[in-house]
Design brief:
repeat, kelch repeat, globular, 36 strands, mainly beta, Neuraminidase, Kelch repeat-containing protein, five-stranded antiparallel beta sheet
Amino acid sequence: MAPGAVAAPADSSITGSANEPGYASNAASWGFTGAMLSVPRSSAVATSVGHFAFFAGGRLQNGTDSDVIDIFNRRTNQWAVARLSVSRSGIGAGSLANRYALFAGGFDSSFRPLSVVDVYDTETSKWSTITLNTPRAYPRFLDLGSTTAIVGGLSGDLQYLSRSVDYVGADLHVTNDTMQVQYPQFGLAVADERCGVGLYTSGYQNNKPGERFNDFEASNQTHVFVAGTPAASFSSAPEFPYPRWGAGGAAANGVFAVGGGHIFGDGTTEPLTTVVDRVDLYRTSTGQWSSSPLKLSVPRDYPLVQAVGDYIVFAAGTEASKDFDILDTRTGSFIDSLQHHPALYTLRTDAAATTVDNCLLIIAGGLVNQGRNATASVEMFNACQA
């Protein structure tokens, strides 16, 4: 096994477990249903735990922050509403130990970073709070199974981008570490809970930390996080091969796909901004990025990317198409067009997405009508079999 490589799951062909349903491997047969959030909004954050999906916070049509959490239970097909302890923007969301939903940090009304983490226990249906060691907004989540790493974010100081890492254990105890990197990074967090591995990569970095004026550039820094006993750890990994802003990613079967985004040009000999269709693959079995990137059917900026069974789905992030790009991690290639199915019914930007039970993809909220209006529309693509 190569240095930095991590063992893949023992059997990547499994389509379900005692706690999960199986899934329909033929994407053309995925079902569709619609629903509505309790209030229209964009910029919400989403996560899932077991049979529950959570859509928290976001921006209302009037531009104010929402404290609403819409909760969907796949088993009962029912929606409920809860509230964040503090209305705020720039929240990070994630899951822990297949039991807890976490909503961390953010900016208050004075744009000061917060350290509060709202915690929902799906076993007891109780809410509580814990505290980040370092206040920050937009922290990134890596669910590593029994431990969740909350990485980076916006710190609000002259460095602006945070190097902080908070580990939350299954007992909700929080410990802190710091990424020893030259340039603080605001990256993309992608985790494969089943093999206990996460990547923090891409995004952008500040090449002048601590100085009055920041110098932001697309980042190639990559770190791999690995679950362990008694705590998770991280180490440097091969550089992200094509630095860019606005990429999205997801992982399944030890395959990490990072796709879309944009690059900047000089505005004279090349466009000022170019949205890309490139997809880079990292495999835990080799600890390397693929030397042959894939291509999306259309360029996508800030795409919604979710794992559904053995598939990784790229949606939205483009004004050109409502169709999905669906990567089969077993073959390392995109599946053929399925007569434009599945696809979004409502083209939207700045929406939230999560996958419940590894088989129900939910896309909610966002901006429609060329970004003028917040929507409450929810689209659910059902690949569940059980």
